């Protein structure tokens, strides 16, 4: 099992969710996050004061999938979240040791 | 501390030494005073509109510009200052501002509004036309209420609530009341029956009224007065923690726009109400107020767009207020085109003041009380001499003895305006400096660093503006 963590542009969130459901992923966790990468922040001007906003808002999507679905899921997210412009985000894939469904106590792939 | 107290008492005594208890000059026997229901109804409306400017107009305009953690402190300061001034106005403010005394302070004859009845009358600017004195008291009360509230914008987000209230009590008594008396107190048009009577009546008027300084709705009394007090305040209080280092961005430009719009709408009560009658001149004042603020909005927006690359909502709202400030002293004498010109100049100049002058001089006027009200007020007061000229479409100045428009000299009028501006700057500056120092010694102006970091809402008022 793998945990896929994708940082995407907030307005691409719906597309990502749809692409994942279409390939059979039954659940994701979404968090509103802020951060910086290659996409630079922007400057805000309030009368005489200039403030540089370094941290830009992004959506963090976390999804756990079975090993054989990882490639497909990563591809789905990449396709859905791509705008071709800087700041589209990143996808991290990590090993997942255990998954438990709380209601039934099922573990592993069964719990996904 | 004792030393300061002594100076303070000395100044108080000097100021009040010239008080007399004389009743205002009785109206000339030949004129039958008339009270029009239309005028009265309009003055009631106008008074309500000025109240709307303060609560919630000014409170939201300022509140939107502070960080969320200080929102309630600003709302509360405006709310309580207005209430405090209202009560002080009835106790002694009205009497000191609008009864006969010396050229700087009025008398005590109407303390506690004594002697005023529903039948009492207040003069307007037309011979024989009067309004009920109670509504005149209330209308002027709103001016006394908004002016001190304007000052808090200069040192928002860092001053103790108690310190602000004590400062306002002193400032209202020794800066607002004498300025109002100096600029606006006169015996009324009916006293000007002939040259000799005019001379006698003129001698009882306020100092700047005698100097011929024109201020229709409070360019000096309200805006320069508050602007200078704000400048002195932010210089003495010092910068906010994190000024020029951390983001001190407004928490809601949306609320600022709502506040600015309420101010704009309420300003028709402020300026047009200052005409005291619902007549043709009132209509001119209305048009001037509308055009100057619109022109200033465009000017600020254009200047910002050119200089900074983007036209901001905060800039648009600030421009409208700058235009309203600048037209305030001129609105009864300017023509519509003069109002547009005045608005354009004020919008562009105030933009320069808050974006360049402030950073050049390095003071932290948090919400630009000086940059908008001080600078805009000075431009308006001096500009009045230009736009009032009949040769430039202005109305000129009425001669109540000849009952016609007097011959107009722009340079003479400019000198008169300069008197108004300079006296206001020096008077307000001096009173403000002493009052801030006094309060600083007595209770301290600034909150602790910890309180400032936590925000004034929690540290001073024990509540938070938003629960999300």
Brief account:
The complex is a heterodimer of chains A (112) and B (468). Chain A has 112 residues and is α+β, with helices and mostly antiparallel strands. Helix content of chain A is 20%, strand content 37%.
Describe this structure as you would to a colleague:
- The complex is a heterodimer of chains A (112) and B (468).
- In chain A, a hairpin with a 2-residue loop joins strand 3 (42-46) and strand 4.
- The relative contact order of chain A is 0.31.
- Helices cover 20% and strands 37% of the residues of chain A.
- The model of chain A has no long low-confidence stretch (mean pLDDT 93).
- In chain A, the strands form two sheets. A four-stranded antiparallel beta sheet of chain A has the order 2-5-1-6, covered by helices on one side. A two-stranded antiparallel sheet of chain A has the order 3-4.
- Chain A has 112 residues and is α+β, with helices and mostly antiparallel strands.
- Chain A has two helices and six strands.
- Chain B is mainly α and 468 residues long.
- Chain B has helices spanning 2-17, 37-63, 71-98, 133-151, 161-184, 195-204, 207-210, 219-237, 253-273, 280-308, 313-327, 336-361, 369-387, 410-442, 449-454, 456-461; strands spanning 34-35, 121-123, 129-132, 398-399, 404-405.
- In chain B, strand 2 (121-123) and strand 3 (129-132) form a beta hairpin.
- The radius of gyration of chain B is 21 Å and the shape is globular.
- The termini of chain B are far apart.
- Residues 8-29 of chain B have low confidence and may be disordered.
- The interface between A and B is medium-sized, with 8 and 20 residues.
């Amino acid at each position: 099992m793998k945990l896929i963590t994708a940082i995407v542009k907030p307005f691409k969130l719906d597309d990502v969710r749809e692409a994942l459901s279409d390939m059979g992923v039954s659940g994701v966790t979404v968090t509103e996050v802020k951060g910086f990468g290659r996409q630079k922040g922007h400057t805000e001007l309030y009368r005489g004061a200039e403030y540089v906003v370094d941290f830009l808002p992004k959506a963090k999507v976390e999804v756990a999938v079975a090993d054989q679905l990882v490639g497909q899921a990563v591809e789905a997210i990449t396709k859905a979240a791509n705008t071709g412009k800087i700041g589209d985000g990143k996808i991290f894939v990590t090993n997942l040791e255990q998954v438990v469904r709380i209601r039934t106590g099922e573990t592993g792939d069964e719990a996904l | 501390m004792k030393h300061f107290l002594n100076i303070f008492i000395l100044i108080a005594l000097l100021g009040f030494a010239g008080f007399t208890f004389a009743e205002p000059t009785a109206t000339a026997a030949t004129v039958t005073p008339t009270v029009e229901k239309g005028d009265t109804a309009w003055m009631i409306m106008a008074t309500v509109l000025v109240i709307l400017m303060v609560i919630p107009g000014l409170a939201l305009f300022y509140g939107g510009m502070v960080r969320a953690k200080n929102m309630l402190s600003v709302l509360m300061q405006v709310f309580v200052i207005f209430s405090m001034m209202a009560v002080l106005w009835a106790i002694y403010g009205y009497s000191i501002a609008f009864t006969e005394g010396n050229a700087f302070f009025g008398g005590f004859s109407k303390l506690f509004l004594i002697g005023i009845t529903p039948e009492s009358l207040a003069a307007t600017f037309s011979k024989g036309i009067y309004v009920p004195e109670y509504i005149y008291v209330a209308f002027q009360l709103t001016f006394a209420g908004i002016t001190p509230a304007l000052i808090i914008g200069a040192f928002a987000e860092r001053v103790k609530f108690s310190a602000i209230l004590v400062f306002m009590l002193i400032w209202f008594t020794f800066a607002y009341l004498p300025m109002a008396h100096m600029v606006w107190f006169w015996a009324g048009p009916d006293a000007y029956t002939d040259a000799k009577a005019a001379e006698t009546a003129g001698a009882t008027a306020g100092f700047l009224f005698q100097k011929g300084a024109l201020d229709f709705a409070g360019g000096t009394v309200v805006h320069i007065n508050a602007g200078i007090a704000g400048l002195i305040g932010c210089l003495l209080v010092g910068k906010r923690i994190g000024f020029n280092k951390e983001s001190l961005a407004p928490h809601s430009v949306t609320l600022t726009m709502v506040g600015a719009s309420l101010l704009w709408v309420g300003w028709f009560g402020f300026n047009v109400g200052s005409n005291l009658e619902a007549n043709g001149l009132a209509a001119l004042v209305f048009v001037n107020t509308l055009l100057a603020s619109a022109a200033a909005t465009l000017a600020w927006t254009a200047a910002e767009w050119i200089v900074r690359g983007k036209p901001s909502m905060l800039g648009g709202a600030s421009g409208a207020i700058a235009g309203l400030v600048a037209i305030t002293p001129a609105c009864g004498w300017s023509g519509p085109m003069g109002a547009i010109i005045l608005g354009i100049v004020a919008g562009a100049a105030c933009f320069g003041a808050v974006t360049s002058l402030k950073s050049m001089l390095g003071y932290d006027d948090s919400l630009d009380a000086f940059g908008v009200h001080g600078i805009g007020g000075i431009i308006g007061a001096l500009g009045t001499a230009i736009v009032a000229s009949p040769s430039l479409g202005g109305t000129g100045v009425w001669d109540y003895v000849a009952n016609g428009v007097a011959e107009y000299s722009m340079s003479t009028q400019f000198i008169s305006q300069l008197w108004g501006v300079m006296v206001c700057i020096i008077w307000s500056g001096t009173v403000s400096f002493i009052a801030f120092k006094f309060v600083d010694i007595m209770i301290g102006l600034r909150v602790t660093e910890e309180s400032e970091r936590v925000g004034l809402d929690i540290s001073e008022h024990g509540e938070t503006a938003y629960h999300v």
